[in-house]
Amino acid sequence: GENVEQHPSTLSVQEGDSAVIKCTYSDSASNYFPWYKQELGKRPQLIIDIRSNVGEKKDQRIAVTLNKTAKHFSLHITETQPEDSAVYFCAASIPNTGFQKLVFGTGTRLLVSP
Amino acid sequence: AAGVIQSPRHLIKEKRETATLKCYPIPRHDTVYWYQQGPGQDPQFLISFYEKMQSDKGSIPDRFSAQQFSDYHSELNMSSLELGDSALYFCASSLFTGEGSNSPLHFGNGTRLTVT
Predict the structure, then answer these.
(1) Which of A59, A66, A98, B92 is most deeply buried (CB count within 10 A of its CB)?
(2) pLDDT at residue B11 above 90?
């Protein structure tokens, strides 16, 4: 089955710096890659996603890149702010008769210091 | 915009008791997913339903069962609870858009189950 690896497990940056989180997946059939932000005790919130027919997607300070050949995708956050501090999960979805079964990475705890 | 509604928010049960968690998807969403998240862990897929039929199954114990009703809400039934079942249980919903894809998953606020 699908396996998603995520690095780093923790990331500390200064406010204003950029943060990059990387994920690799194992199943070449995966075609949808969302990123979720989760604050302590709260629900995962979708922040950006990308489908396999696109190499890059950007939404303000957040961007995601996908390399299908290498089977890896990355989250880029620019001009980080303290409120960006949270756990970020990448995920990969294997098509299964059209339904999404998300396999999550192990999470990256991002800490943005003022 | 309406979100996924889960109830209860918190639930405390003793070992060997049963628990029922409820999930009301975003209006018009026809697919419901259940995830279990232990402390410091990533969410683990349990089971999903589309149009009241089970669409996929993950690491759901045999002690657990779930169903989706005609109004698309779903319930996760957990029996013979064990200490290790203590976790956050999230429900997510999406809309099947055909052609092998769904709309993005949106999660509810979760139910925190504590088994003592």
Answers:
(1) B92
(2) yes
